[in-house]
Amino acid sequence: MALLLQQGRYGNGRISLRLQGEDGVPYCNVTTNVPSLTPGHGCVFLDNHIVPDLNGVAIIPDVLDFLEKTQVLRRTGISQEYHQSFNTFFEAELLDLDLPTIDLDL
Question: What pTM, to 2 d.p., does this model score?
Fold first, then answer.
């Protein structure tokens, strides 16, 4: 499956990463925006769909591994709990803060 990784910005100025098909149809968000939590400098919160759960299963597999292997980002090991939900948000450092559109062949 060929997907395009595109960098953008959320309304509050934070970096967003999204995957879309070659036809422009959105596939998934790589990042999530949690306005009440603050990621580290040059970091983003990973969307829960690409992060493996306690059983090692991700809803959208292979995306996170691919982004790490191609040195787009790296997990920092830092997580933050959001007090208004049961979610834990995992942080990743972007290794390039000005990414070109990247063609992912998963």
Answer: 0.85
